[in-house]
């Protein structure tokens, strides 16, 4: 049975191979434009900076150079139930310099489409065993991000040689470039 996390809660993952599933529902009628949310992953070292540009994994760079993190593709609509985007992780392959994996979701062209996370509901991040499809943990974002156009859903970090997940749920008014500036 999956552990349901609250904001700020941390939990050991306990599996070297897993999938990160991210999901959301949108209210497209509020702006007249379709929503395109994008999941991105920043693989960082002790200095909280991306190891190299290739360790920024997203729809245009779907796989990290060590083969440890792979984005399965961009969902342009978010339609349907369940995960809207997934990222496959194999920590047995991760670069030894890596100590943190930051999971961010941004709204594509949010400013020009006048969209924000206040128009997004039922957002969640879950980590599940890739082999059995059984949830290990799940974090449902309950905050109302009325002006934010990007949200850090969670982070996976290494502590005492164990990989843990922290439910972050922190919004940012800005886009993917703002996260690139922060982590580069």
UniProtKB/TrEMBL annotation:
InterPro entries named in the record: Stress/Tellurium_Resist (IPR051324), TerD (IPR003325)
Entry keyword set: Tellurium resistance
Pfam family, one: TerD
Domain of life from the UniProt record: Bacteria
Residue span, TerD domain: 1-183
Keyword check for Plastid: no
Similarity field: Belongs to the CAPAB/TerDEXZ family.
Protein name listed in UniProt: TerD family protein
Species annotation: Mucilaginibacter angelicae
């Amino acid at each position: 049975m999956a552990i349901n996390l609250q904001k700020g809660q941390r939990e050991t993952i306990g599996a070297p191979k897993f999938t990160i599933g991210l999901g959301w529902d949108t209210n497209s009628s509020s702006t007249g434009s379709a929503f395109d949310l994008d999941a991105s992953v920043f693989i960082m070292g002790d200095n909280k900076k991306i190891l190299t540009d290739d360790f920024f994994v997203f729809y245009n760079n779907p796989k990290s150079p060590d083969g440890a993190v792979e984005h399965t593709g961009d969902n342009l609509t978010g339609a349907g139930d369940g995960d809207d985007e997934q990222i496959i992780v194999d920590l047995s392959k991760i670069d030894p310099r890596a100590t943190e994996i930051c999971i961010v979701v941004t709204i594509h062209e949010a400013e020009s489409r006048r969209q924000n996370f206040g128009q997004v509901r039922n957002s969640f991040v879950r980590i599940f065993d890739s082999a059995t499809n059984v949830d290990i943990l799940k974090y449902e974002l309950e905050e109302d991000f009325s002006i934010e156009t990007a949200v850090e859903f969670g982070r996976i970090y290494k502590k005492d040689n164990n990989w843990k997940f922290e439910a972050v749920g922190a919004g940012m008014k800005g886009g993917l470039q703002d996260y690139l500036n922060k982590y580069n």
